[in-house]
């Protein structure tokens, strides 16, 4: 792996583990066993590293959901989207946790973020339109757009919201599963009987994932 890629990889791991505000370029260099000067040869500051991580995130977001895939299984399509959402939220959890502070100090990054949010909204609306075509939703365009916006807000702000609930909150996989369950809970009462059966099955699936995650957390503590 090239040094530049190693820096991005190490920074992402350290940001996720300790929180982006608590990590400096010196921490990243020390973790890699390189000099600060070597790091600055590739990145002029920490903000440049964050930009590169976000570019990677935006690329992963674009690839996470393929609108051209077959539409013959509506439930599987939604699960695929939710699994992709979980993967992204977990892999880049530092960004979600520190989102307001990171964007407040970097106008260029905020513009990138807005572009990524548009991609997220497009993905969500593709799912919702497919649900309506399958007869699982009977909302007009305005209502469908409002539901999509609400679900996007949950996905985008869930980790930050959970982080703000108590000092030193640790973000683990279970926190993200709870966010996915919250999205499903919002969608469930809006769907037809057939749609509710599918969403209930997905809720059961992710609740099982949450139980497994909680069990692993207890094993770690013990």
UniProtKB/TrEMBL annotation:
Residues 1-61 form the HTH tetR-type domain. Gene3D superfamilies: Tetracycline Repressor, domain 2. Residues 24-43 bind DNA. InterPro entries: Homeodomain-like_sf, HTH-type_Tx_Regulator, HTH_TetR, TetR. Keywords: DNA-binding. The keyword DNA-binding applies. GO terms for molecular function: DNA binding. PANTHER family: ACREF/ENVCD OPERON REPRESSOR-RELATED, TRANSCRIPTIONAL REGULATORY PROTEIN. This is TetR family transcriptional regulator. It comes from Salinivibrio kushneri. The lineage of its organism: Bacteria, Pseudomonadati, Pseudomonadota, Gammaproteobacteria, Vibrionales.
